[in-house]
Hints:
- The structure holds 2 protein chains of 2 kinds.
- Chain A is an alpha+beta fold.
- Chain A has 6 helices and 11 strands.
Amino acid sequence: MKNIICALIIIAFYSACKPGNSTTTALPILGNREPVTKTVDGKQVTDTVYSTIPAFKFVNQYADTISNKSLDDKIYVADFFFTTCPSICPVMHRNMLNVYKEFKADDNFRIISHTIDPKYDTVPVLKKYADKLGISGNTWWLLHGTKEETYQIAKNYLVSVQEKNPQGEYIHDGYFILVDKQKRLRGTYDGTDPAQVTKLIADIKTLKIEPDQVNAK
Amino acid sequence: MKLAFITGIGLLFIMTVVVSCQSEDQVEFNRYYSGGSVLYLAHCQNCHGEKGEGLQALIPPLTDTVFLKQNRSSLACYLKNGLKGKLSIAGREFEGEMPAAADLSPIEVAKVLTYITNSFGNKAGVINLQQVQADLKNCK
């Protein structure tokens, strides 16, 4: 009798711990949110408004203008770097290359890398960097803009960039930011950690099949 | 009988000396190599990669054994003072700048060089402190 009770308890514990594999968890929506109450058809309706990436305009390595419209109906990953960065950028872009290779055939996916050193990283410098990195086509854009615009948009991606530390080096976070087709933030990943970037690739696949993303054209 | 015994003892003595000498070299190598692996992680790996593979055409790999051999006495200077300009490595052209690791002490330079020149398919033995100190005097 005792044995049976023991066995039952073990089974109960085991089934309680069993992960629910049947339902894939949706990615969270990050950033500030506020409830907005509207009157629709005479009824009060409360909706949640999530923070989104605002309108922007930058120039890519081909000297093409890239605006928020260029990323309409695209899932994209954003990061911040500069071509002469001696510390974390090489490892970030070594890892980002894996993301690029995984999704370069998908026209509804983009990678954007903002330079935080626009004075040195002119369009030709960015083009040369892209060539040496071995990237081509329109999957991965290296974006040039004014310092103010770049540093301003970094805040929207919750990324911290500072011009110079006491050693005279640019400093910035090594985060990769996942943005959905509604320009909402869906994940942040440490771009210097290969395991986190593997998770990013998996999360992009999860995001792509979300109803919100599939239905957005 | 006595002769054989003495010869045996003698042989044993010689063998002991040889074995212990080898292991002393091995101990020195291990000390440099393991110290170097930690320094590599902190100072080199972000750019040159975990396996010394470099990064595409941006950052050269550390797998070119011939380059490392031909420039063996300049390697310490490259680390200490940085490296700029065109380089031909593993049959490919590289152009750019490697920042100076000016904060590395000569013993640290020796350790990390021992690690690099004995990893990633390289096998060049110890680059010790004395050699690094001599090489650093001849930096251009």
